[in-house]
Automatic annotation (TrEMBL):
Keyword Transport: yes
Catalytic activity: creatinine(in) = creatinine(out); GMP(in) = GMP(out); 3',5'-cyclic AMP(in) = 3',5'-cyclic AMP(out); GTP(in) = GTP(out)
A Pfam family the protein falls into: Sugar_tr
PROSITE patterns membership: MFS
Domain of life: Eukaryota
Family: Belongs to the major facilitator (TC 2.A.1) superfamily. Organic cation transporter (TC 2.A.1.19) family.
Residue span, Major facilitator superfamily (MFS) profile domain: 87-515
BP term (GO), one: monoatomic ion transport
Name listed for the protein in its UniProt record: Solute carrier family 22 member 7
Originating species: Platysteira castanea
Membrane topology, as annotated: Multi-pass membrane protein
Gene from which the chain derives: Slc22a7
Amino acid sequence: MKFEDLLLEIGGFGRFQILILAVLCLLRINLPMHFLLHNFLAATPSHHCAIPHQEAFVNLTTEEVLLVSIPRKPDGTFSSCEMFSQPQFHLLLNSSLQPENKSIIQHCQHGWVYDHSQFTSTISTQWDLVCEQRGLNQATATFFFIGVTMGAMVFGYLSDRFGRKTMLQLSLVCSVVFGMLSAASVSYTMLAITRTLTGVALSGLSLIVLPLGMEWVDVQHRTFTGILTSIFWSVGNMLLALAAYLVREWHWLLVAVTGPCLLSIVCLWWVPESARWLIAKGKVKQAHRHLLTCARINGRKDFAVSPEVRNLYAQRIVLQREYKNLGGTYSYISLFRTPVLRKISLCSGVVWFGVAFSYYGMSMNLTGFGLSIYLSQFVFGVIEIPAKMAMYVVVNRVGRRQSQAWTLILTGLCIGANVVIPKPFTSLRSVVAIMGKGFSEAAFTTVYLYTSELYPTILRQNGMGYTSFMARLGGSLAPLVFLLDEVWRSLPEVTYCGVAACSGAVAFLLPETLNARLPEGIEDVE
């Protein structure tokens, strides 16, 4: 008797599972509000060099002061990072005559002046993370995702060893603590450290929510569970746009996006531990108590411990003891010990890297489409919902493997298309970008569902931890790729395009899991 048969006896998708999913979906809203916060936390408004001795220009307008003090770029706009060493008053007579003597142009000497019409303050304006310091600004997102990367390995292992719910509670408490410390940062170093630790903490939330939900539902509702929890990522995406629009000061914005974690801690109290995990670990009494609760809430009051159920419990305990007697331990090394698991782990690692790399590459580039940064963020969140609903049908008709591969390839094609579409065609570029964002989110939705079905219960969180590590590695590198525009303006987009297409091709090497039972042990996979 398999665990799925047991779920059918107690109700594989009843009121009990709906209540669990409702709480887990609320928890998932927290994630994008931090994962995509960099768009607003580190936004760089229009700026130019601060001009000293303003009293010498009392008879000039603001535009004329800029004209004699700041050189123009080839497109006619004022430079953000350079100034004249001496005022060039002759430009008042003919502004088109830009000085040919480059020696009178220097880097900003007295700081910068920022346009505060859109943002009251960001970390860019707080610590002047512009021009030569631009790399530090982008690195803020990288530090966060490095934290998520480290957390993926830690929480993946710990949740397989100590349980899903315990680690989820620890993740939320740490998220609140480090999130609030980030808001209170008094230096860039303090912010970088606390954002990294916030990433570590939130990684547990990212990693555990979906598998915990899926381990309580039957085979027929696994796809629905994956899509539903994923839709609430998009809800969080839209709420981030609203929060950033209402709160324009970066300290209070951090407080606003961290606050919901407190509510999540309260809501999580009701969610039970995974009975599937408890049985796999030999904790039969606890598992049976949760199963009885599930049966009672689902109206299956006649559920009892039949001989088949006892055999299931005994089977899991025996398998666990046999594995330990052979000297084995369930760790990340176990993902690469056997041939089929090794192939799954290598290929899924590449796919996750490509999914995250292209997704965050698109999500952190909200300019150049003719929309405000807030509207772009909101539209990108809205378009994800129909993309996910479409995937609910597609993954059940076409299968997981084909869906994963083609959504990634189409994401790459959309990114590549915007490389060749001229900048003035803002409407066309917006449509292509929104389509690409939809395909990218469809790929992310599929990969969460797909991966949780590929790994056995005893290694599922280790598998999710490893693949999440690869994803966060992609997420860490994605913001830094924007700096390649100094080499060639389109090089970042070309890089995102190539990685998405190649990782999509690798997805064809994975096995299909449509309508397959969740594997319990390594022997089920092999």
